[in-house]
Structure formats: C-alpha cells, structure tokens
Specification:
The chain has 751 residues and is α+β, with helices and mostly antiparallel strands. The chain folds into four domains: 27-97 and 112-163, Methane Monooxygenase Hydroxylase, Chain G, domain 1, CATH 1.20.58; 179-354, Methane Monooxygenase Hydroxylase, Chain G, domain 1, CATH 1.20.58; 386-549, Up-down Bundle (Dbl Homology Domain, Chain A); 557-579 and 592-612 and 620-689, Roll (PH-domain like). 58% of the residues lie in helices and 10% in strands. The strands form two sheets. It has a nine-stranded mixed β-sheet with strand order 1-5-4-3-2-8-7-6-9. Strands 11-10-12 form a three-stranded antiparallel β-sheet.
Length: 751
C-alpha cells in the first residue's frame, strides 16, 4: 500500500478535497475565486503525484531505485514550496478581509465576513492537505529506504553465500598415498581456508547488518532474521568442515611421514649392507667395524623407529583407508626382510670377528679391490661397466629402444638429472684415485693430494647447485616405467635418487676422513698439509652451502655473478634510517626490526627476505626474495653499537643511510666484520695503487680509536674520535674512512 499508494492517495485527497461547491458560498471577489482555483489545482497536483507513485514500475537494482527516490524527493520539496507559496497567498488575502476585534466590528458587513470565512475555510483545507501529504511522504520515504536496504541486504546475502565453498572443500580428498599428496592437499585446503575466512568475515558483516535492520523495526524483519540464521548456519558448517578436513589430513600426513621414515630406514639399511666392503670384512678389524654398524642398526635405529602396525592401526583408526592399511602392511613386510638380512649378516660377521687376520691400512683401495665394492657410484674401475649409473641410467636416456618407456618431457634432460656427474667421475677415476694410490706407502702425503687438487673439487659446487633442479625432475618422473626398467636391469635395491645423493655425501665425508687422519697422526710429517687440507675442505663445504642458498634468491633482475664471489650469507635483524647525519639508538628503538637474510659478495651486500614454502615430499624449502643491495665501494662500518654486543652499524653514502645489524651470535658478528674488513682493506690497497679511485668513493670505517680518511688527490690521514675535528666527517661526506688502530698506521703517509 505504501510503495504504490493508489488507495491511500485517492482516499486522502477525496476526503480533503473541496467539501463545498460554488453554490455553498458566493464568490463575490475575483481574488477569492482565483485562490479557490489555486487550492483545487494543488489538490489535483498532489493527486497526480500519488498516481505517479502508484503506477511507476520500480527498477530491479538498488542504484536505480536510489536515483528514483532522489527524483521523487526533489519533486516532493518542489510541491512543498508550492503549497507554502499558496498558503502565503491565502494568508495575505485573509488579512484583507480580517475584521478587528473591536466594538465597531459588529457593524462590519455580513458580505465581508462571509468572504473572510470562505478564505479561512480554503486555508484550513490547504493545511489539512499539507499535513496529510507530509505524513504520507514520511511513511513512503521510510518504506522506500527500507526497500533499498532490503535489496542491498539480499544482494550481500547472495555474495556471502558459503554453499559453493562447502562444495569446494568437499572436493579436496581427505587422504593421500604419499606425504607429497597429502601436503599438496593441505596446501589446497589452506588456500580454501584463507578464502573462506575472508568470505566468513563478509558473512558476519551481513549478519550484523541484518541485526541492525531488525533493530530499526524494518518491515521485512522476519525475512531478514531468516536470512541471518541461514547465513550463520552456513558459516558454522563451513568452519567445522574445514577444521575437520584439516585435522584428518594432518593426521594422514603424520601417518605418511611415519611410513616414509620406516621406508627410509629400510633404504638406509639396504644401502649400509650394499656398501660394506666385503674384502675388508675378511679381516678381524674390518669384520668388527661392520658388525658394529649392523648391531647399531638393529639395536638403535630399528627400536627408535617404534613401528608397530597394531599400534598404528589403533592410533590412526579414524583415517585408515584400505590403501593406507595396505601401505602399513607393505612397510612392515619390508622392515621384517631388512631385519632378517641384518641378522644373517650379523651372524656371518660375528664368526669373522673371532678370527685373526692381517692389519688393515686406511688408504684408498686398489682398482682390483674397489671393483668388488657393492657401491654403484664412483667405482674406480675403468671402462663403461665401472659406472652403472652413467651406463645404466644416463646412457639409457639416449637408447632408442628405451624411448618407449620414457616420458616425452624427460627426453633430452639428462644434464639436468645427472648434472656434471660424468666430470666428477672422470676426476676421481683418472686423477684423484691415482694421486691417492701414490700415497699407499707414504700416507703422510694424503694432505698434499687434497691441496694439489683443491681447485678440482669445485666441480662438487657445480653439482650441488644443480641438485634442486635434479631433485625436482626426479620427483616428477620417479615412478615412470623408464626408471623402473633401468633399476630392474641393474638389480639395484635402491632407487636412482639414493645414488644421486652420493656426491653430496662424499663431499661431507672428506673433512671427516681428514679429521680422522689428523686424530691419529700426532706430530708426524705431513700434519701441516693435513690441517690445511681440512681447512680447504671445510671452506669448500661452506662455499657450497652459500652457493646453494644463493640459487634460492628470486627477484634480482641482474646477474649475481657480476657481484663477484659470494663470501658470507646469514640472517640478521635490521633497523634502517634514511636520515643524514648521526642517528641515536633511541631513534631506532621506535621501530620493529626487519628480519633479513644477507648475502655478502665482493662488490655488494644483498638484502633479501627469507620465505618458506612446502616442497613435494620434502620439508620446508627456503627461498629468498630480493629487496635491495648496497655497493661495497660506498659503505662503512662501526663495529660496536650501544645496546647489544651483537650489533654493528653499516653506513652508506656518507651516512645518508644507516643500517643497524644484529647478528644471531657474537661469533657470527665477528666473522662478518672480518670479511667486510678484508673487502675494505682491499679497496684501500686498490686506491693506493691508483686503481680507479673514483669507484671506491664513499667507503669508510669508524672504530673505537678513530677514523682513517682518504680524499681524492690527498694522502690518508688518521683522526681520533676525541679530536674536535671529528666534525669534519659530517662536513665532508666525500671523505672515506677506514678502521685502523694507531699502531696499524705504520708506513702510511699521514701528512
């Protein structure tokens, strides 16, 4: 009735309209007649406006409805102005016929009094029309506003509908056949959960809006409350189902990890058995060592595994599927087989350990001995048969008869899968093995062999840098028929990935071997070379580790190799100030430090943000998002900063930018400062040698003693911090400071 008020308008203005005719009074003045006609016109206009409201179709969108309401409101105020204008006209006319309340008023003509009554009645009717019109309009506008509110509420209700999300989460399986499967589904569920949280937030806002509408006595309060209850139920169902699915997948992942741990234990056991040097085990010492490894596996590794199928089935009963039950049983069978193999080998070695045999030499085996080794990787025998991996896998990738088993995307990618393994094999088989064999009678020369070939070991760094790409390719196609067929031909118990890991394991064993040799060498000849070789291998491990982190940098648009050799990498808390001049620590204390992973190169200090992501079948894999870098030619350092002994300061471009760095440990801080010092000293030496001094402008170093400055075209000079001339640093930002204690300045021209 209110939105299309035909009946209301007709009833109101019919009752209010002229309740008289021209016969009811005599219009003796044209002014009264004109005023009466004007009042009648106003009544007809209001009637027409009501008819327009009744017959106009409402739009089907809130924007158009609001526009229509705006137009009607404007028309309402226009009609109000017309009514007020006519009211003023009537009041002026009334005053012309007004009879004063005096003794003489009784003598007023009856005709004039009749005119006054006529105008008075017309004004009263006009006032009644105005009041009725205002009351009608207020109700109509309120209902129209509520209609728009309801329309928007319905639209928001549709947008916040969670039913599609409930279907999406239901489509995510609640189990998986491997940790990689489950992690992928957890990732998908996590993405849905983030989207669902945003949607639930919108739904809660819609529910709040609905409660506000209901509290304001909206005419559709029952519908609004129904929608709110429906939306609340949907969000509750979605939240509960997401939590339940996440809990089930997390439990499944825990089981899959337990199964994977057991399988890795089986692989470790098979690898241990396959790589025990049976020729050395013929001697008592070799048999005892092999027996120790076996008993450690049986008595420590297997019991720590705590793998009991009955316990697992009780613990994970709510998530077990027929497939998972089959996996549990298969792993149990594999563990029993491994245990049986170890027990048989244990019995054999116990008998050998009781016998007396010749002493064992800790040197690399001769070719004819190594040829009998069970390890398929880096066997020192010559010829194609000496390297099963390169022949049994890599060469088979070029075999036309094997193409039928090979996925198309795997073809032509052997260099990614195997990296530079052929180069490593050639180095060991033709160079390093011969060097070690030459030390059989002079083992004190082993350290020299490592030092002589230290540059050759850089091939391991190349292999390790390619390892992530190799692992990714393997994970994608590990179950392909090609690899299954190759493994079957080679009769390998372990998959290819176990052998692809061997070069990395070999690299870590070198330093262990050298430590063992040093342990038993005492003060004999060659100890110095062994120590240097150990340092070289440890440096190589650090370099490989740093370069592996470097390969995870993303977002750097240039070529990282242009920054020189990577020297250090590590995590720091960082405060930054971009103001010129000195900065007090309290200024930094206001800000929360940023967590940054820094890479120190010969020519730049690179700032990255560490991020973690899930890799298939692996733990979280870090990568580093590039933020910015500082040129080493424009930095200086302050070694000690108040507040924390782990902090030091890096300032850039004459302290235009200041970085407070907090290392994780004092040892880390000392190592970084040492490397930065080396770079800055090298830059100073280059400047002293007239090597493009302009490239090094802005570098410097401030210490507790003072600053050493150089200036283009001037000699170096030392300025104690207690000297009032220290203000020269701020006055001359082009100066370059280097940290030196007074006794380090010998030989420099300080004039």
């Amino acid at each position: 009735m209110v939105l299309r008020p035909t009946g209301f308008i007709q009833r109101t203005f019919t009752d209010i309209g002229f309740r008289f005719s021209q016969d009811d009074f005599i219009l003796r003045l044209p002014a009264i007649e004109n005023f009466a006609l004007t009042v009648k016109d106003i009544a007809q206009i209001l009637q027409s406006f009501g008819t327009e409201l009744a017959e106009t179709e409402l739009p089907d969108d809130s924007f158009s409805i609001e526009q229509l309401l705006t137009i009607r409101t404007q028309k309402y105020f226009q009609l109000k102005e017309e009514i007020i204008s006519v009211m003023k006209e009537g009041n002026m006319l009334l005053r012309t016929f007004e009879v004063p309340h005096t003794k003489d008023s009784k003598e007023c003509s009856k005709e004039k009094c009749g005119d006054w009554e006529t105008v008075k009645r017309l004004l009263a009717q006009l006032h009644e029309m105005e009041v009725a019109f205002d009351d009608f309009w207020d109700k109509h506008q309120l209902k129209m506003d509520q209609y728009v509110q309801l329309w928007k509420f319905e639209q928001n209700f549709v947008e916040a509908n969670t039913v599609p999300f409930i279907s999406l989460q239901a489509a995510v399986p609640s189990t998986g056949n491997s940790p990689a499967d489950v992690k992928q589904r957890l990732t998908e569920l996590g993405t849905l959960d983030e989207m669902a949280k945003e949607l639930i937030g919108k739904a809660q806002l819609v529910i709040l809006h609905g409660h506000q509408l209901a509290a304001s006595h909206h005419y559709a309060v029952e519908l609004i409350c129904q929608r709110c209850n429906e939306l609340r139920h949907q969000t509750d169902v979605l939240s509960e189902e997401l939590k339940a699915k996440d809990k089930k997948l997390t439990k499944t992942l825990e089981l899959q990890n337990r199964l994977r741990q057991a399988l890795l234990c089986c692989d470790e056991g098979a690898y241990l058995l396959a790589n025990q040097p049976m020729d050395k085990c013929q001697a008592k010492e070799g048999a005892q060592r092999a027996l120790y490894e076996i008993e450690k596996f049986l008595d420590v590794t297997l019991p720590n595994l705590k793998y009991d199928p009955r316990v697992l089935q009780r613990e994970f009963e709510v998530i077990l599927t027929p497939e998972l039950k089959a996996q549990i049983q298969a792993v149990q069978t594999k563990l029993e087989n491994i245990r049986s193999m170890f027990q048989n080998r244990q019995s054999c070695f116990r008998k050998l350990a009781d016998k007396q045999s010749r002493p064992v030499q800790l040197v690399t085996p001769r070719p004819e001995q190594a040829g009998r080794s069970k390890s398929p990787l880096f066997s020192p025998r010559h010829g194609k048969a000496a390297h099963p991996l390169l022949i049994g896998y890599r060469a088979e990738m070029d075999n036309p008869s094997m193409l039928v088993y090979m996925p198309p995307a795997l073809r032509g990618r052997k260099d990614i899968l195997f990296g530079n393994m052929p180069e490593i094999y050639e180095f060991h088989n033709t160079i390093f093995l011969q060097s070690l064999e030459s030390c059989i009678r002079t083992p004190q020369r082993v350290g020299y062999c490592f030092l002589e070939r230290r540059n050759n070991f850089q091939i391991y760094e190349t292999y390790c840098q390619n390892k992530p790409r190799s692992e990714l390719l393997w994970r994608q196609y590990s179950e392909s028929a090609f690899f299954v067929e190759c493994q079957k031909k080679l009769e390998h118990k372990l998959g290819l990935d176990s052998y692809l890991l061997k070069p990395v394991q070999r690299l870590t064993k070198y330093q262990l071997l050298l430590k063992e040799l040093l342990k038993y060498s005492g003060n004999c000849e060659g100890v110095q070379q062994l120590q240097e070789a150990l340092i070289a291998m440890l440096d190589l491990l650090k370099s490989v580790n740093d370069s592996m982190h470097q390969t995870a940098i993303i977002g750097y648009e240039g070529n990282l190799s242009d920054l020189g050799k990577i020297l250090m990498q590590g995590s720091f808390s960082v405060w930054i100030s971009h103001r010129k001049g000195s900065t007090k620590m309290k200024d930094f204390a206001r800000f929360k430090p940023m967590q940054r992973h820094l890479f120190l190169y010969e020519k730049a200090l690179v700032f990255c943000k560490r991020r973690d992501e899930h890799g298939d079948g692996h733990d979280k894999t870090p990568f580093y998002s590039f933020k910015h870098y500082l040129k080493m030619s424009a930095i200086g350092i302050t070694e000690n900063v108040k507040g924390d002994s782990r902090k030091f300061e890096i300032w850039y471009s004459g302290r235009e930018e200041v970085y407070i760095m907090q290392a994780q440990t004092m040892e880390s801080k000392a190592a970084w400062l040492n490397e930065i010092r080396k770079i800055l000293f090298k830059q100073q030496e280059l400047m002293k040698g007239n090597v493009d001094a302009q490239n090094w402008l802005g570098a410097g170093w401030r210490s507790e003693w003072g600053c050493l400055f150089t200036h283009p075209g001037a000699s170096a000079f030392f300025l104690p911090l207690t000297d009032p001339r220290d203000s020269l640093l701020a006055a001359h930002p082009e100066a370059i400071g280097y940290p030196k204690s007074p006794d380090c300045l010998a030989g420099l021209d300080l004039n």
